[in-house]
Structures are given as structure tokens and as C-alpha cells.
Amino acid sequence: MLKKFGLYLVSVAAVVFLFTLIGGREPDDAVAAFAPVKNGVNNPASSRKNNLVVTCNAYSGTINPLYLETEADREIVRLVFDPLVEPGEGGAPVPVLADYTVSQDGRKYTFTLKEGAVFSSGDRVTADDVLFTWEVLCDPTYAGHLRPAELGIVGYRAYVEGSATTLSGVEVVDERTLSVTLEEPSAAALFTLGVAPLSRAYYGTDFAWGRLDNLLLQRSRPMGCGQYRLTAMTMELLTLERNKNYYLGAPSVPTVYFKVATPELAAAMMKEGACDLDLTGGSDSLEVAGLDHLVRTETAGDSYGLLGFSCQSALLKDPAVRRAVALCIDRQALIDAVFGAGGAKPLTLPVSAASFAAPAEPPAARHDPAAAVALLEQAGYVRNSGGIFVKEGVTLSLTFTTTDNNPASAALGDLLQDGLAKAGIGLTRRSLDYGSLLNQIRLGRCEMWFMAMGFSPDPDPTALIGSGGTFNLFGYSAEKVDDLLARAAAETDLERRAQLYDLLWQALSANPPFVPLYQRVQPVVCNLRVSGLSFQEMRPVTAEFYRIKW
Questions:
Q1: 1-79+226-293+528-550: CATH homologous superfamily?
Q2: Do residues 52 and 530 make contact, with C-beta atoms less than 8 angstroms apart?
Q3: How far apart are CA 248 and CA 118, in angstroms?
Q4: Do the domains 302-520 and 82-210 match in fold?
Q5: Do the Cβ atoms of 455 and 352 come closer than 8 Å?
Q6: Which of 136, 176, 224, 388 has CB 3.0 to 4.6 Å from 80, enough for a Cys bridge?
Q7: In the CATH scheme, what architecture does the domain 82-210 have?
Q8: How many C-beta neighbours within 10 Å does residue 264 have?
Q9: What pLDDT does 247 receive?
Q10: What is the spatial distance between Cα 433 and Cα 166, in angstroms, rounded to a whole number?
């Protein structure tokens, strides 16, 4: 799934602001749509009868479920494309465009498309369209955000290497049904397999193994099976018209505009009634008190911050040292310094508070340098004449590397400087630009650093902390953790899987690969004229725009 690394290690690509794509300029009716409304109206947005305006951060210009780059992309794509499956409450998978079953051994998924599912062109969505989408995912030239190699589809390796012309593990049963068999059970595979289907007739022209040229050419002219269809786009304004062929019924709002805005501009537009929904994430500063036409809500954000460790370094290979460092960090002070009140919440486990895998009562965020001292003494460390701990002639002095122009990294460095000094741990600070830091981390030459990352709907952290994991930048390897990761990833029963994750969190608390610091809070401000819209963690806000009523 889409992962947001705030150092941006698996990152969102740089957004290029082009003024091409579908349209050339903002349509006149769109300009009028979010013009300020006269004061004195109880709800200043009420005069806009036929459109809904959303303010958002920059989007990439690629409107395709296989190539998400920004959070705005995800919201827009969800309007144009319905996925087969998406996360529901707690991140549990729920069927959308297709129902699904899982075989008893957890290796075979069978999808059955909903009756009446059609693309905006009016053509039916078929099992062959889903097959085409999976063929694109498994193509050797695919370079999107999804990771098909981790699915373990039977026949994937032969297909990607070109020794087979089909995916042997995929079977089209009939026009609405197909199945896929995996090498091993994988609960996390469902969200990737459940990605929104692409029309073979529209996107598959001249499609051939190793050649996705036509599909890429269509990235700014999407045609999907979702609630709305894209009719005009610049890199500042995007216009969508309701899909009259939508299988759940045409939405009641004829037109939706996505307007790129700064948080400050979005707040002003919300106050004036010039927009209806702010997704910039900057609404935490918007005072809604006294503004009867607005309501503010919060959801658990999908990004979190952590202190990374090089677990193979001479000093940090000892879990006791890593645990001691964690006790020296005042998480709330970090949040207050970087985000202000309400911008984030302390985090002690590498799982979203909204996930089914999160314990009902997570460990408390402890800031206790005295406990760190006791832990180090139990591990055989003694203080030298300067008050710094020493063991076997080696002084316990660590290096923290910050990134240039990163407020969270700088604030964490200040807090570490103070907290570690109280615990008898030395600290040296250095600063590098992003590229140099990334290179040093990969070479194992950074002892500690700050990183921000994104949660995926599925809580499996194997790629992050499993031995040899794709994004394991910590040099972390623990046999017990690997065993629990494998068992949890293969378990398709959510209750049993949550129990395995409870055991995993306990193991990570005793032997941490990094220190979770905070989870962002996602504020959303909505005009009260918009009813029927639900806000749910891990799912795009736009998932149920078709339910909106004025």
C-alpha cells in the first residue's frame, strides 16, 4: 500500500506542476463555484446548489489506482475508481466492487464482481479487466507504489521473467468471477489484489508484456468504475462530474471540485463558505467556534514519527541501550514543540491506534531517565568520572544525525541532548542533507536518526523490521520477531491475528528496532450542509461521496 516516509525513504515522488493534462484553464463555472459568498447568510455556502468544493494539498496529476503518489491522489482516485476491497473499521478488509472468499488453507482468494458494476463508459466490469490489472501489476516495467513481488502469486516469477505468458496462479472462472492462488497464505495480499480494476478495452490498447506505454499515456485521462468521472484538470483545479452509470446509483451532487490550497487559504475559504470540505490537514488552526456553518472532526492520521536505530552498531546492538534511550524521550514535549496542541498523539507501538491490531490499552509513553539509569546498571554499565556510563572500557556515547530544515528532527535532537545527559549517555549531533543521510543509513553509518513514515491499512511490518525486509534500514534481526511476523502475516482470522500481534508488540518492547514517537492527528473541517458523509480512519474520505445529501 501507499507508504509515506517523511524522510521520504519510500516516498512520494516529487510533484511536478504542469498546466496541461485534460483542460488548459479553470472553467468559468468552477471559478464562480468557490467565490466568497456575501456575509449575513447563516450558511454562506448555501447559494452553491450544484457543486461541492474540496480543498486539498498538491496532487501528482496521475489519476490511476496503480500509481498513487500523494494523499490527494488517493482521495481523487477513490472518486473515479471503486476498489474490489478496501479497509473498513480497524483496517479490516471489506468488499466494495467484489465479494470474496478465502480458501481454508489461506492460499486461494476468489473474487466475484457485484451485479451491475460498470465503468463510466457504460461497459461492464469483467473478471478479464481484473486479470488485466493484475497483469499490469506483475509486469517487469511496473513502477507504481504497490509491491506485487510480495504477493507470492503462483507463476509470478515465471511471468515477470518472461518465461511464461500468463499468470498460472490466476483463473478466470466466468465473466464476473476469478481466483488467484498464492505460494503461501498472506492476509496482507488482499488489499493489493483488491486494487480498483482498469478497463482492458480502455487502458489495454497495444498492451504487451514489458510495455505499459499506452497505460501511462492515459494517467491524466482516467476512466474508472467509481462515483465520479474526471472532466477537466489543471495542477490547481480538478473537476469531476457524477457518473450516471454508477452501480450504486448516481451521486446527488452533480459536480465536485478539488482545489489545491495552502492550509491558510483553505481555512479562509471554509469561513467564507467558498468550500465545503478541507483535506489539507491544516484545519487544526481553524477556529470553528462561533461559525455555525462548520463542524470539525479528528481521525487518527496515517503518518507517524520514530527514532531509528542502527541495531548492528557496537553500542546499539544491546537492546538494553535502545530501551534506555527510549526512556529518555519526552514524546509529549516533542509533539508540543513541533505540532502544537492537538497535532499528534504519543505513540509507543508501530501500529496505528485505529488498527484492529492495536491493543485496547497500549503501553504508556514513559519519560523516565532514572529508569534508564537503572536499566543500564542492570546491564553491567558503570559511570566514569564524568558521569557517563562505560562497559568493558567502551564509553556509552551515541551520535544522532538530523536532516537539514526538519523541525521534528531538530526538536528530537534537543530532547535527546537533555534526556540522555540525565541518564549518563553521551550524545554527539551532526546534520546532513536528505540524500547524504539516506546513503549513510543504508551503509549502516548512522547510529540514530529521525524518520516519519506512513501506516498501511494492513498492519504487517515485515518489510520494515523482518530480517532482510525490503525497507529494514535498521539492521534489525530477531528470530522470535521473525517467527511472529510470519505467523501473523499468514493468519486470515482477524481475532487470532490480533492475538499474534499482541505477542509481537511485547517482543518489540523488549527488543526494539526503533522508538515510535507520535501518530499525527488528521483534522477535517466540513460545512454542515454536507450530510451523509462519514469519516473513518484508513479509508479515503471520498469513499462514500455518493451518499452525500444537501
A1: Periplasmic binding protein-like II (3.40.190.10)
A2: yes
A3: 10
A4: no
A5: yes
A6: 224
A7: Alpha-Beta Complex (3.90)
A8: 12
A9: 95
A10: 45
pLDDT digits (tens, 9 = 90+) for 74-102: 999 999 999 999 999 899 999 999 999 99
CATH architecture, domain 302-520: Roll (3.10)
Q: How far apart are CA 74 and CA 507, in angstroms?
A: 34
3-state secondary structure of 438: helix
Q: Could you tell me the pTM of the whole model?
A: 0.84
Q: Are 329 and 417 in contact (CB under 8 A)?
A: no
Q: Where are the domains of the chain?
A: 1-79+226-293+528-550, 82-210, 302-520
Q: What's the confidence (pLDDT) of residue 286?
A: 58
For residue 281, CA distances in Å to 107, 300, 342, 449, 529 come to: 39, 12, 12, 25, 20
Helix axes 494-510, 479-490, angle to 10 degrees: 160
Q: Which amino acid is at 477?
A: S
According to DSSP, residue 260 is labeled E
pLDDT exceeds 50 at position 10: no
List strands edge to edge, sheet with 177-181.
98-102, 108-113, 177-181, 170-174
Question: Which pLDDT score is estimated for 331?
Answer: 98
Which residues have C-beta within 8 Å of that of residue 343, sequence separation ≥ 6? 284, 335, 520, 521
- In order, the DSSP letters of 112-173 are EEPTT-B-TTSPBP-HHHHHHHHHHHTSTT--SS--GGGT-BTTHHHHHHTS-SS-TTEEEE
Give the position of cell 492475538: 499
Residue with cell 472518486: 79
Per DSSP bridges, beta strands 51-56 and 277-278 are parallel
CA distance 129 to 176: 10
For residue 20, the Cα-to-chain-centroid distance in whole angstroms is 28
| Cell representation of residue 184 | 503461501
Q: Decide if 162 contacts 140 (C-beta within 8 A).
A: yes
Contacts of 134 (CB under 8 A, 6+ apart): 148, 153, 167, 170, 180, 193
Q: What is the pLDDT of residues 95-140, one digit of tens each?
A: 999 999 999 999 999 999 999 999 999 999 999 999 999 999 999 9
Beta strands at 448-454 and 397-403: parallel, antiparallel or unpaired: parallel
Q: Between 14 and 205, where is the model more confident?
A: 205
More confident residue, 537 or 281: 537
